[in-house]
Amino acid sequence: MAAKRKHPMLRRSQAMWVSRRVWQPRLVFWAGAISIGLVSVFFAMMADEAQILFHTLVGADTGWRFYLPFAATPLGFVLCAWLAQVFFPGSQGSGIPQAIAARHLREDEDRSHILSLRLVAGKIALTVVGLACGASIGREGPTVQVGASVMLQAARWGGMAQARGLILAGSAAGIAAAFNTPLAGIVFAIEEMGRAYEARTNGLVLTAVILAGLASLGLLGNYTYFGIARDTVAFARDWPLVLSCGIIGGGVGALFSLLALKIMRRIRRWNTLQPLWRTLAVAGICGLAVAGIGLASGGLTFGTGYAQAREAIEGTPLPSFFFLEKFSAGLLSMVSGIPGGIFAPSLAVGAGLGSTLGLIFGAGTGIAALLGMAGYFAGVVQAPMTAFVIILEMTGNHDNVIALMCASMLGYGTARLISNEPLYHALSRVFVAEAIRRRRAAGGEATAAGSL
Question: What 3 state SS string does 295-363 have?
């Protein structure tokens, strides 16, 4: 009898490789991670085509098409706001606050209001429409909500119980696939998405990032988001630039965050009596202002700002006041209530600010743009590790790691002095509060969320 007994390790191995109960959730999880990569690539292609369409329609001449944004942009904002309010509630804004909020909600019913396949379709479609009408938004934040939604749905289909860990994994995979920055996806999961990070989610996050990244690489190949940055910081000469980009960039980034939170709180209070009509009015006014800024800037502030940021990194100085114009267009687009992220516009603002400071200090535009991006982005999101890692991976030059770390930490420190409320986490509380109100309205007095 003893000879027929199987070794415990062999029994465990057979259970792992043969049991459907073990394999089914894993296959569903892997399929979800690969799907995030594929959807991210599709989203990126649609976003690029939308921007090309807008610039083709507007044209560069001084004829009637020059004034087309005064009609197309506000009407597009109103359309996106109406569709988001009526058909896709929960799709408004970046999408990162929704993913953060979903990790704090305990009931799957509450999570389904902000993470679902229906919202995936709405988020992608409305972000693309927003870019097609000239909004100063990005697709990277929305990709986080898309990734979290896909992974949460995979959890439902696969019967997996680790909802919080899977939302984290889906969010990280979304960032990794959107920028082709796997390290930044992992750091983002730890620093921004999971302030109370659990070690047991390590495997989920790593696996999701790897599979989503492989899917993206399979379609687009290996690339760096902004190309390869050739310039290198010389601390003996450039330390004033590092300090100014970090401190000034962090201060301007914190100002963006502070203004966005204050304005959006006022808009929410004002919208209470007539939510739909006042939401549409705000969207229309913001769209008209974005059109005016875009035309005043010669069309530079329309869209994500990717092209302008890349030009600065490659050494072409941006107009001195571009960062102020892009700052204003991005702020108006964010508070308008339409779906769209702030990642790419923030990087463009930072590149513009760095370019201007580079001219003042007589430094190279490329390195000044990188430092400006690090300082400003760290100031906006108050996530310094994510800031320098994502910029490092997007530009492919690891010689600047110490300089980018310094600029990011200075930006973060300056932002904390101005505002101690991280933007995404402050916005996530709005969605948690809405979930609590829904439960109370339905007669349930149980608390819908854990402490943030």
Answer: HHCCCCCCCCCHHHHHHHHCCCCCCCCHHHHHHHHHHHHHHCCCECECHHHHHHHHHHHHHHHHHHHCC
d(Cα 318, Cα 12) in Å, to the nearest integer?
Answer: 61
Instruction: Please answer whether residues 134 and 76 qualify as being in contact, where contact means their C-beta atoms are separated by less than 8 angstroms.
Output: yes
pLDDT tens digit string along 89-145?
999 999 999 999 998 888 888 899 999 999 999 999 999 999 999 999 999 889 999
Q: Are 287 and 78 in contact (CB under 8 A)?
A: yes
Coil, strand or helix: which one is 364? coil
pTM, two decimals, is 0.89
Written as one letter, the residue type at 53 is L
Phi, psi dihedral angles at 360 (to 5 degrees): -65, -45
Q: Which domains, from first to last, does the chain contain?
A: 27-220 (1.10.3080.10), 235-423 (1.10.3080.10)
- Token look-up 């502030």 returns 301
pLDDT band at 421 (very low <50, low <70, confident <90, very high): confident
Q: How confident is the model at residue 87 (pLDDT cuts 50, 70, 90)?
A: very high
Q: Is 131 helix (H, G, I), strand (E, B) or coil?
A: helix
